[in-house]
Amino acid sequence: MRLVASGLAHRFQGTGNLFENLSFTLESGEMVAITGPSGCGKSTLLSLLAGWESPTEGEITREGEGKISWVFQNPLGSPKRSVIDHVSLPILAGGASRREAEKLSYQLLERFDLSQQATQPYATLSGGQATRLMLARAFAAQPALLLVDEPTAQLDTHTAASVNAVLGELASTNTIVVIATHDPDTASSAQRVINLKEFAK
Asked: What is the CATH number of domain 1-67+143-201?
């Protein structure tokens, strides 16, 4: 997948532009951080890239096809479903057997330091664990575009560093990874940074 944004501007009714004159190209295999102060439009830009909203000005052109996954800042899961069930679902949807799906899911849970919680229900997870679980599930779906909103906000420094490394690995598998973040360490782990403060009105 390739995304080309040309002359983007966006505002909500009764407000000024959050950003304007924003142009960039996103290529497969690239990890990009979206930074800027609170309220500058980071999450809004993710919505535009996902196609959930249309920009007030400009356009986004998508070349190629593929799944789009989004990991939200406040993740939601099925409270009674086990951790491994959450990760297995997209693998099963891709045609794998239950045995294959659970094997791959467990490997992913190990990478996100969740293997000990594999059989626990989602409702028992901490906020940081829930975020890591949603990242593992997104990884399992093998998306062409992964949008991540503040992935390290609830994580300690060590865990945040490991999550940043895994996101970089996912980008290396020809996924476009776009991360909205306040975390300078997350931003520095990306190949490129788009600072929305530079495009504010």
From this structure: 3.40.50.300
From the number of C-beta atoms within 10 Å of its C-beta (0-12, 13-18, 19+), residue 156 rates as: exposed
The pTM score is 0.89
Domain residue extents for the chain: 1-67+143-201, 77-142
Q: Which long-range contacts (CB under 8 A, 24 or more apart) does 116-121 make?
A: 117/83, 118/82, 118/83, 118/84, 119/82, 119/83, 119/84, 120/82, 120/83, 121/79, 121/80, 121/81, 121/82, 121/83
Identify the band that residue 85 occupies on the pLDDT scale cut at 50, 70 and 90. very high
- C-alpha–C-alpha distance, residues 180 and 113, integer Å: 23
Is residue 124 within 8 A of residue 46, CB to CB? The reply is no
